[in-house]
């Protein structure tokens, strides 16, 4: 993960800004947790400023983009968190687990260090065909290694799985953020900050973007996706997983 983001993460904060609606969901899910570990923290998006936060981020390029006054950051990996059991009220991760070399171990580590709850914002790969870009333009996405949502939830111990629909004006420019703004994917800066493009072959990316540009110019994209043009949000398979740990207070 560090090597990947040392390469692709240099302009990360240009397009990967906090989305207020996602921030509200994450902070609500943290509940009354006062101490929080942010695993795979990147540049620090979604870290609450009113709690005691420690960040874990292995990439020096990403750590360098953290804002002045951001939470203390530790150079470590998700699979071997350098903290004792139940060291934090909560552990959180945002679109990070698909990059971990040993994803199951990292998910179990998140739960191990959490006293009350562990929460993860992630993607359900069964929704690949819900999004026109992955369905029609980058079929190689299907061949990338991954886990089912059920497997992810099992290793985290999640007992709640909440859908997070993506609004048409979403600010955090991850893969499906521009579902109603297709021209954005023609921008190399936007693509540079979406990791899937770095995991596909340059030839496939170049060919897919050329086809998308042609379809936008001809009107074929708008015709094929006309039902989306008036939609306010899309359920693209993004989910918030919440695991209640042994020390969590009963409801």
Description:
With 251 residues, the chain is of the alpha/beta class. It has one domain (2-244): Rossmann fold, CATH 3.40.50.150. The chain has eleven helices and nine strands. It has helices at 2-8, 12-15, 20-30, 60-63, 103-112, 132-136, 149-156, 188-192, 195-199, 202-218, 220-224, and strands spanning 35-39, 52-56, 72-74, 88-94, 114-123, 160-163, 166-167, 233-234, 238-244. A seven-stranded mixed β-sheet has the order 3-2-1-4-5-9-6, sandwiched between helices. A two-stranded antiparallel ribbon has the order 7-8. Strand 2, helix 4 and strand 3 form a beta-alpha-beta unit. Helix 5 (103-112) packs parallel to helix 7 (149-156). The chain starts with a helix and ends in a 7-residue tail after the last strand.
Estimate the mean pLDDT confidence: 92
Biggest sheet strand line-up: 3-2-1-4-5-9-6
What is the count of helical runs? 11
Indicate the overall shape: globular
Strand percent estimate: 15-25%
CATH topology: Rossmann fold
Helical amount: 25-40%
Tell me the count of domains. Answer: 1
CATH class: Alpha Beta
**What low-confidence regions span 5 or more consecutive residues with pLDDT below 50?**
1-9
Per CATH, the superfamily is: Vaccinia Virus protein VP39
Largest sheet: 7 strands, mixed
Total beta strands:
9
Kindly report how far apart the N and C termini lie: 37 Å
Radius of gyration, taken over Cα atoms and rounded to an integer in Å: 18 Å
What string gives the helices and strands in order? HHHEEHEEHEHHEEHHHHEE
What is the name of the CATH architecture? 3-Layer(aba) Sandwich
What would you call the structural class?
Answer: alpha/beta
């Amino acid at each position: 993960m560090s090597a990947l983001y040392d390469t692709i993460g240099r302009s990360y904060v240009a397009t990967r800004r906090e989305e207020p609606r996602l921030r509200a969901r994450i902070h609500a899910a943290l509940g009354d947790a006062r101490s929080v570990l942010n695993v795979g923290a990147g540049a620090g998006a979604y870290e609450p400023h009113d709690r005691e936060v420690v960040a874990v981020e292995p990439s020096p390029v990403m750590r360098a983009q953290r804002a002045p006054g951001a939470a203390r950051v530790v150079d470590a990996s998700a699979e071997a968190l350098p903290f004792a059991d139940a060291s934090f009220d909560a552990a959180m991760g945002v679109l990070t687990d698909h990059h971990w070399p040993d994803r199951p171990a990292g998910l179990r580590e998140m739960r191990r260090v959490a006293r009350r709850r562990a929460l993860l914002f992630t993607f359900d790969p069964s929704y690949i065909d819900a999004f026109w870009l992955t369905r029609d333009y980058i079929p190689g996405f299907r061949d990338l290694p991954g886990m089912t949502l059920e497997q992810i939830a099992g290793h985290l111990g999640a007992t709640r799985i909440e859908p997070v629909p993506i609004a048409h004006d979403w600010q955090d420019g991850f893969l499906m953020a521009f579902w109603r703004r297709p021209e954005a994917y023609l921008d190399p800066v936007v693509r540079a900050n979406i990791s899937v493009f770095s995991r596909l072959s340059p030839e496939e990316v170049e060919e897919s973007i050329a086809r998308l540009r042609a379809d936008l110019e001809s009107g074929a994209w708008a015709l094929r996706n006309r039902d989306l043009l008036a939609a306010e949000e899309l359920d693209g398979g993004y989910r918030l997983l919440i695991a209640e740990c042994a020390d969590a207070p009963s409801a």
